[in-house]
Design a protein that fits this description.
Shape: globular
Largest sheet: 5 strands, parallel
Number of strands: 15
Strand order of the largest sheet: 2-1-3-4-5
Number of domains: 3
Order of helices and strands: EHEHEHEHEHEHEEEHEHHEEHEEEH
Strand content: 15-25%
Radius of gyration: 26 Å
CATH class of the largest domain: Alpha Beta
CATH superfamily of the largest domain: Response regulator
Helix content: 40-55%
CATH architecture of the largest domain: 3-Layer(aba) Sandwich
CATH topology of the largest domain: Rossmann fold
Number of helices: 11
Distance between the termini: 30 Å
Structural class: alpha/beta
């Protein structure tokens, strides 16, 4: 795509849903341009006129279904990623979506934060292997070499590492990296997330270290990769839960103080990162609270800009029955907001916040 502007197209025949998503995601207009339409035909019309990085489509729509739209996009705009969303989730629908080239699959109802993160991940995801054959993954190139009964070699470059896979009459006979060779090298290369490849025709192997059939090698590499991915996801989830527990302990003294009702760590756009308070079992209400705080923050910055600039570090507000403390987390696109009644001891809360601010920053950092 020659146009550097990131574009996201949301397709759903429910106008209320597309209107809500457009409103909620408008805070990310600096990251991507959002377009919403209410039919598959409208989506095709947009794609014919503008380059689009990501399409998010409902499955069940009149005339052109989401799956039909997905297939059309894969045929005509193979560089455009597609996310399928549906309230009719089933393994059959998911399998069909995957077979037609779906990038991701998300079931309704979903939280807006989940969809937002999926969009950001998709737009930033540069995984995949580049080469002379566009829109292919490494496994596709390997299959082409094997099915074509070629004698050749693949040179794969990943970060600071080089890998080689050798084919003789369509069989994988040798693989090597900087430190490995044989099957271990092959599985290691297949675990790489992204890189560049070059096909070297009629390149003979320096030696033969692999006897297993290529189908078995690919299946085993997928199993190993899935297993590693599952372990990595579990580790990420464990680390996330650990950080949440540590944050919870840091906020115990604040949330237990007289008059304090809510403690929220959130982005500038209001997306909740951590919450303690009376809404802990109501995630939608926490999201709404974050939106309202974001609006307050934007209003404060707009009002103060002519006098002091937009860089608000700390703000304390007293209302008839409410008190608000808002503190920027240094070096992060994040804030801590404490809300309570007018009896809240703001001096104590300020001291506790400043005491724990560096630790909070560490726990929310990527």
């Amino acid at each position: 795509m020659s146009d550097p502007k990131k574009r996201v197209l949301i397709v759903d025949d429910e106008e209320d849903l597309t209107w809500t998503l457009a409103k909620k995601l408008s805070k990310d207009r600096d990251k991507f341009e959002l377009i919403t339409v209410n039919s598959g035909q409208e989506a095709i019309n947009v794609l014919n006129q503008l380059p689009v990085n990501l399409v998010i489509s409902d499955v069940r729509m009149p005339e052109i279904s989401g799956l039909d739209l997905l297939e059309k996009i894969r045929e005509t705009y193979p560089q455009t990623k597609v996310v399928i969303m549906t309230a009719y989730g089933s393994s059959d629908v998911q399998n069909e979506a995957n077979q037609r080239g779906c990038f991701k699959y998300i079931e309704k109802p979903f939280e807006i934060n989940e969809l937002r993160q999926l969009i950001l991940d998709a737009l930033q995801d540069e995984k995949g292997f580049r080469g002379t054959v566009a829109d292919f993954q490494l496994s596709d190139i390997i299959q082409l070499n094997c099915l074509g009964r070629l004698t050749s070699a693949l040179h794969i470059k990943h970060q600071d590492e080089d890998g080689y896979i050798y084919f003789q009459d369509g069989n994988i006979v040798h693989a090597e990296t900087n430190h490995l060779e044989g099957e271990k090298a092959f599985y290691y290369i297949m675990s790489w997330e992204g890189g560049e490849f070059k096909v070297m025709r009629n390149q003979l192997p320096p030696r033969e270290t692999i006897q297993k059939g290529w189908q078995s090698l690919l299946l085993e590499s997928l199993r190993i990769k899935d297993e590693s991915s599952d372990l990595a996801k579990e580790e990420i989830e464990r680390e996330k839960r650990k950080r949440q527990r540590q944050l919870s302990r840091l906020f115990e003294s604040i949330i237990g103080a007289e008059g304090v009702t809510h403690a929220l760590v959130h982005s500038h756009a209001g997306f909740p990162i951590f919450y303690r308070g009376k809404l802990e079992n109501k995630p939608d209400k926490v999201t709404e609270l974050g939106d309202n705080i974001s609006n307050l923050l934007a209003g404060l910055e707009k009002a103060s800009e002519p006098l002091f600039g937009k860089h608000l570090i700390f703000w304390e507000g007293h209302f008839l029955n409410h008190t608000v403390l808002l503190h920027k987390i240094p070096g992060e696109d994040a804030y801590v907001t404490i809300l309570g009644g007018r009896e809240m001891n703001t001096g104590f809360v300020r001291l506790e916040l400043r005491k724990h601010l560096d630790k909070i920053k560490t726990l929310i950092a990527d």
